[in-house]
Design goal:
about 325 residues; alpha/beta; Rossmann fold; Dihydrodipicolinate Reductase, domain 2; 2 domains; about 25% strand
């Protein structure tokens, strides 16, 4: 296991195994882990062995055979688990008594009870959750603005995420879980994290489904913050309608518009809607791009393992997100 603070040339690399060689692994995690000087991908594994052979060749990975027994998996420090929640239980149960840490891609679980059940069997630093918006520079900037009350108290939040068939393609599968679990989870978790909400009261929801598969969701709720403060929050997440593709934070003295489009700047508006400030790329906090953000999230996850401490990447800290999505979809208002 690596030791932060060592000279790079002297670092004992963190050994990583990868379960699941789908899009998120091949397009983001593998490039990042391959480029890091403190990690080494020891093996990869995917039940779709034919497709995995192609990916493994590109990244020069050792690919374990699909019929490899878990007891024969080479020893590693961390396992990146980029497979659906419905396929994880066997691996988690087998490795629970080891010292292996898991970086688990979202969604961590499809229910709050499942989320808690998994977390109770592992030390917090051994379970990382792939909700990378927590490490996004724009989210960190807004969190600081809220904490320091730069524009006064926060009194309302609005989220819009998704466009017709954005990232949808062939994702209409039970293991994806619909638009909230696959897409909206990032925006919702970011809002809960930057506002430090400790609970949520759902007021009403409107869900458009196809055979139980949520494609478009409107929801109004109250965020319960510290000091018994309540902030109204409206969200619209969709694969079939246009949304604002960003967030609006209404403060006492200004409105902050945070777009998900990186080519659009964060804007500060006065209460009469005149633009006061436009924050371009140079004035925004790092990390900005997806690769930078994913890499920063890995930094914090690995640091948590090294220090044996929970941090923003720890799965235990995203339980509210799982609880809220579950309640919205079940209509618990």
């Amino acid at each position: 296991m690596m030791n932060f603070g060592q000279n790079v040339d002297q670092i004992e690399k963190t050994k990583v195994g990868v379960i699941g060689l789908g899009d998120i692994s091949t397009k983001v995690h593998l490039p990042i882990l391959s480029a890091r000087k403190d990690t080494e991908i020891v093996w990869s594994f995917d039940i779709n062995e034919e497709n995995a052979k192609y990916i493994a060749k590109i990244y020069s990975l050792r690919l374990l055979s699909a019929n490899t027994a878990l007891s024969d998996f080479p020893e590693v420090d961390v396992i990146l688990m980029a497979i659906p929640p419905t396929q994880r239980q066997t691996y988690l149960e087998f490795f629970v008594k080891s010292n292996i840490a898991f970086y688990i891609e979202k969604p961590f679980a499809f229910s709050a009870s499942q989320h808690e059940s998994i977390c109770k069997n592992f030390a917090p630093f051994r379970l990382g959750n792939g909700l990378q918006y927590r490490s996004w520079g724009r989210a960190l900037l807004v969190k600081k603005i809220i904490e320091e009350q730069v524009f006064g108290n926060l009194f309302r939040v609005e989220l819009g995420q998704g466009t017709p068939f954005s990232g949808f393609g062939g994702r209409k599968r039970k293991d994806v879980g619909g638009v909230l679990w696959d897409l909206g989870i990032h925006g919702l978790d970011m809002i809960f994290n930057v506002t430090k909400a400790h609970s949520v009261e759902i007021l009403k929801s409107n869900i458009f489904e196809d055979n139980g598969f949520a494609l478009d969701v409107y929801s109004s709720m109250n965020l319960n913050l510290e000091n018994e403060k309540i902030v109204p929050f409206d969200c619209h997440v969709s694969w079939v309608k246009e949304t604002m593709e960003g967030c609006i934070f209404n403060f006492e003295n200004a409105d902050l518009i945070l777009p998900f489009d990186l080519l659009s700047p964060v804007e500060i508006l006065s209460k009469n809607k005149n633009k006061v400030m436009s924050m371009n790329e140079e004035t925004q906090q790092y990390p900005l791009t997806p690769l930078q953000t994913f890499s920063s999230h890995w930094d914090h996850f690995l640091e948590g393992i090294s220090n044996q401490t929970s941090n923003r990447t720890s799965a235990e800290n995203s339980l509210l997100t799982t609880q809220t999505i579950e309640k919205i979809l079940e209509g618990k208002v």
